[in-house]
Write a structure and sequence with these properties.
The protein is of the alpha+beta class. It is 40% helix and 17% strand. The protein has helices at residues 2-35, 53-86, 105-134, 248-259, 269-277, 280-283, 317-325, 343-353, and strands at residues 143-150, 153-158, 163-166, 168-172, 182-188, 193-196, 204-206, 212-216, 222-228, 240-246, 307-308, 313-314.
């Protein structure tokens, strides 16, 4: 019986030690996967693949905090394993009171002072990054954008360029020789939202009746994905956004195209008439027409966007047709109503929207 009890205790200690080692290995593996660099762009947003100055600062701070936290875990876990093995119950100790320890001034000072020093170091490192990101000066070459969160889509206005678009933000790449960051003013049209593109910057909330600010300085071209990071209603999870970082030349081409009025084509006159005589024009705007609505996205250059429904679907004629006919098919609970058009009128309307490039 004594040998059985001893074996059970040894087994328990071994299981605890193995469990601790498995947890430690899992943490190290997860950290390695997160920080591993890949030769190609990862389509999944990842804070460990920064592509912008603010994101770089957040990335290095995250690695530092992970390293400190990992070191603390290793020390504590090692001490636990050491104590569990060294001071395990033995058969000769049965019925005997263990040695009584009434404290050690040196040990108590150590486990009080060391955590305080660690917290102070982490606080100072975090405060430095917050200061560098939030208090950065806006240069004269910066692109200014006003981002407005709606349920459940994004509106982007470029006051200095005279452009209004939705869901897909275009900004120029910033080179060290020619820095051109993008500074955003964040507003909300209804409830709380949160603007987050992990590879370009940290999260910043959009709060009604308040103006918040953030900035991005991307170093590489490409399309970066983000979304609303604050629960804002039924379709919060599908309030997506895409940030296209263009070369300086491509950005200027995009700006010139966005400044043009909506193209009018003779074969789309019937659809234009439907657009202007239904509820479409009450919510949406198309430059050069009587439609000046502001409740929904500006559609002047709708077909220049890769997605519709705030990134919920590809921008194809088939998806556009279904989106107008039955928005619930893409986003249940969205605030866009089904238009209840006849098949012929719906076809004409889609044909007209396809001309808006």
């Amino acid at each position: 019986m004594l040998e059985t009890t001893r074996s059970e205790k040894r087994g328990t200690v071994a299981c605890r030690a193995a469990g601790t080692l498995v947890i430690l290995a899992g943490i190290l593996l997860a950290t390695g996967l997160c920080t591993a660099s890949t030769p190609n762009d990862n389509p999944i947003p990842n804070i460990f693949e920064p592509r912008s100055t603010p994101a770089d600062s957040i990335y290095h701070l995250s690695r530092f905090i992970l390293a400190v936290s990992g070191a603390i875990f290793v020390v504590v876990a090692s001490l636990l394993v050491f104590v569990a093995v060294k001071f395990r119950s033995k058969s000769e100790d049965a019925g005997r009171e263990p040695a009584q320890v009434y404290g050690s001034t040196q040990i108590e000072l150590a486990w009080t002072v060391i955590p305080i020093l660690i917290v102070v170091v982490l606080f100072l490192a975090t405060a430095r990054v917050i200061h560098n990101v939030q208090d950065a000066a806006e240069p004269s070459t910066a692109v200014g954008v006003t981002a407005i969160g709606h349920q459940f889509w994004w509106e982007f206005r470029y006051p200095g360029l005279g452009i209004i678009t939705a869901n897909e933000l275009h900004i120029p790449v910033s080179n060290p020789s020619q820095p051109r960051p993008t500074f955003l003013k964040l507003l909300s049209a209804d409830t709380d939202h949160s603007f987050w593109v992990p590879q370009l910057a940290g999260k910043t909330d959009l709060i009604p009746n308040r103006v918040n600010e953030m900035w991005m300085e991307p170093h590489r071209t490409g399309v970066y994905l983000g979304q609303c990071a604050q629960y804002c209603g039924t379709q919060h999870a599908k309030m997506l956004l895409r940030v296209s970082v263009d070369t300086a030349e491509d950005f200027e081409v995009w700006v010139r195209a966005q400044r043009q009025p909506g193209i009018q084509q003779e074969n789309a006159i019937a659809g234009k008439r439907i657009f202007e005589t239904t509820a479409c024009m009450n919510c949406h705007a198309v430059t050069g027409t009587a439609a000046t609505g502001r409740f929904g996205p500006d559609l002047t250059h709708l077909m220049s966007r890769a997605t519709i429904a705030s990134g919920a679907a590809e921008n194809t004629p088939q998806n556009l047709h279904l989106w107008i006919e039955n928005p619930e098919a893409f986003k249940p609970g969205s605030l866009m109503p089904a238009m209840q058009l006849s098949p012929a009128d719906l076809d004409d309307l889609v044909r007209y929207l396809e001309t808006l490039r």
